[in-house]
C-alpha cells in the first residue's frame, strides 16, 4: 500500500491486487464484502495519519479507480467541517466511528506500466514484439518515468496475462490514472509505440 499527499486536504492511496489478497479481498469481490472493506478503509486512514498526519475527520469524498493489471487507486479528499455544529453533535459522530463519505467508482481497462530507465522500455518492447505483440501502445514521460499504456482491445484475451507478466518484469504498476497522463504527461510516441521503439532502438 502506497500513500502520497496530493495537497493539504487530498491524498492518493495505491493498492495492488497482492495488497488486497493479503487482506482476504479478491478483486472480483471488492464491493461485495462490506465488513472487510470497512476494515481496509480504517487501516488506510490509520496509515495515512501515521505517515502523513492526514486526519480523516469530517466529510470525505472518496474516488475509487479500479485498473485491470495494477490494482486500485483511491483518492480521498477531506471536505470542510461545518463549524456551527454543536459539541453534542460532534460527540455523537465520534461515538459512531463512521466516516461521512461520498464514494464514486470508476473502472479503466487501459494497462499502464512505469519504467525508470529507457533501457527497460526498450527491453520490454523487444520482449513484447518477440511474443507477437508488435502493434499498439502509447509512450508517455511523466515525473521522471516512462509510462507505456496499452489498450486491452489491442491484446488477444488469451495473451493478456502473459503481456502483464512481461511488463511487470521490466517495469512496475503505476498509480497514475490515464486521465492524468493525458493531461499532464508528455506524449513521446502517440501510436504503435512498441513497433516504433523496436525499429529505432533495436538493430
From TrEMBL:
A Pfam family hit: MecA
Domain of life, per lineage: Bacteria
UniProt similarity note: Belongs to the MecA family.
Name of the protein described by the UniProt record: Adaptor protein
Organism: Paenibacillus agaridevorans
Amino acid at each position: 500500500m502506497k500513500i502520497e499527499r496530493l495537497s493539504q486536504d487530498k491524498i492518493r492511496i495505491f493498492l495492488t491486487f497482492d495488497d488486497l489478497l493479503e487482506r482476504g479481498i479478491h478483486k472480483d469481490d471488492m464491493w461485495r464484502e462490506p465488513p472487510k472493506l470497512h476494515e481496509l478503509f480504517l487501516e488506510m486512514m490509520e496509515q495515512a495519519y501515521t505517515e502523513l498526519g492526514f486526519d480523516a475527520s469530517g466529510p470525505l469524498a472518496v474516488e475509487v479507480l479500479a485498473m485491470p493489471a495494477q490494482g486500485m487507486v483511491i483518492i480521498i479528499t477531506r471536505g470542510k467541517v461545518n463549524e456551527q455544529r454543536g459539541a453534542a453533535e460532534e460527540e455523537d459522530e465520534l461515538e459512531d466511528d463512521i466516516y461521512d463519505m461520498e464514494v464514486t467508482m470508476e473502472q479503466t481497462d487501459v494497462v499502464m506500466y512505469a519504467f525508470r530507465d529507457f533501457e527497460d522500455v526498450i527491453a520490454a518492447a523487444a520482449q513484447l514484439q518477440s511474443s507477437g505483440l508488435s502493434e499498439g501502445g502509447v509512450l508517455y514521460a511523466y515525473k521522471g518515468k516512462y509510462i507505456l499504456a496499452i489498450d486491452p482491445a489491442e491484446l488477444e484475451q488469451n495473451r493478456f496475462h502473459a503481456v502483464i507478466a512481461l511488463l511487470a518484469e521490466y517495469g512496475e504498476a503505476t498509480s497514475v490514472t490515464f486521465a492524468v497522463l493525458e493531461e499532464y504527461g508528455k506524449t513521446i510516441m502517440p501510436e504503435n509505440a512498441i513497433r516504433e521503439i523496436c525499429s529505432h532502438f533495436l538493430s
